[in-house]
Amino acid sequence: MNRTYEYRGYAIRVGVEANGTVPLERPEIGRPRYAAVVSIAAVDERALPSALRIDTAAGLPFSSDIDALMGGYSEARRLIDEQLSDTPT
Whole-model pTM? Predict the structure, then answer.
């Protein structure tokens, strides 16, 4: 799953990776954990040097692809607000 969002003049690209497989017949096998892979680029194409891999929120692993997607987006917005934006929040 991949999504692109715009936030305060930046393009946030969030992809989701599963670390493991979804068990189909063996309930004793744990469910996969998910990670968000985030890249941020400004409208003028300034980009962070590399993608960020985020696999937890508040110290807990993402339990679904949607959680990872939204967690990656939230973390990217926080980074923009704290480190990249020229305008104070």
Answer: 0.75
